[in-house]
Amino acid sequence: MALPQSLMVSVMPSELELIACEQLVEIIPLVAMEKTAFISGAYGPLRPPARCKVPIWIATNLKLKKKCHIVPPSWLNIEYLQDRLSRETTYPEFSAMPFRFAEIAKVLLDVASDDFQNADKIRSLLKDIREARQAKSREGLTKLDHSELSLPNLSSMEINEIRPHFVKGMESLVKLVKDPEGRHMES
User: Fold this and answer.
1) Is the pTM of this model over 0.85?
2) Which one-letter DSSP state was computed for residue 69?
3) Domain 12-145+152-177 has what CATH class?
């Protein structure tokens, strides 16, 4: 089955979440397990109540089986997110966030919201940050220039969202720069 044209230049958000699940997160195991080897590496041993770092996909699997608690990443708390929201609404540039913050936050909050203090407030702040950053992206696309594009601190999900618009915009700019015979005009 062929993908629709609009999706051919983008990755599905669920695919980005899958990629983000390779990131390591700290857990507090509730069961003991020996070191286990996977294709992506060996993890463990798990010895309650000692913390251990494992990929998010292992952490979510254990959490769903009630075999661990997930320790929220240092950036996924109310104080940090309020600071980021303040920066997003005050300064024209994008504030520094983890590259896969949107995907990681969604997966962890979907599976382990009980491990977060005030998960609903965190979700609300993430939504506000996302909206502020989307507004900046839209504004940046209106100022698209064929010679240079610099958008530091964009996240994986944001790059994926603007890619189709960026590709269309660049195609239009290239057409405008070409003359009728298809040669590039000298500036």
Assistant:
1) no
2) E
3) alpha beta
Considering only 47-61, 81-95, 137-151, which range has the smallest mean pLDDT? 137-151
- Encode pLDDT of 118-155 as tens digits: 999 999 999 999 999 999 887 766 665 555 566 788 88
- So where are the chain's domains? 12-145+152-177
* Three-state DSSP state, 40: coil
The pair of structure tokens assigned to 173 is: 């700019």
Q: Reply yes or no on whether the pLDDT at 1 is more than 50.
A: no
Residues forming beta bridges with residue 55, ordered by sequence position: 24
Crossing angle of the two packed helices 78-90 and 119-142, in degrees rounded to 10: 20
**Tokens representing residue 90 in the block:** 């005050």
Do strands 52-55 and 41-43 pair parallel, antiparallel, or not at all (unpaired)?
Answer: unpaired
